[in-house]
Predict the 3D structure of the following.
Amino acid sequence: MLLNKMKSGLALLITCASMLVITVQAQSLRDPTQPGVGAVSHSVSQQQGTDTLKLNSVLISDNSATAIFNNKMFTLGDRVQGVKIVRINASGVWLADGRHFTLYQAVTETKGQ
């Protein structure tokens, strides 16, 4: 009888010890949805002023031309990061400071040519 109590006590001790190990291991795991150590978070408004201009697309119709920079729409005369758009056509966009933005050739090619 004493031997049976010792066996059940030992089984209980082993169970408690294994639960403790599992708890300690779970506490050391990092949440994968959180940024890594040393990551810096910026709000959207902080990022907008420091973005490099990227021409995403040019939309040309009979009445208007629209340039899409950094996923935002602009028309002739609008200002992109403080610089006026002076020309928009199928081959690119020109800014008042002399910069010329073009799309990748694959974007501007017409199929079948």
Summary: The mean pLDDT is 76.
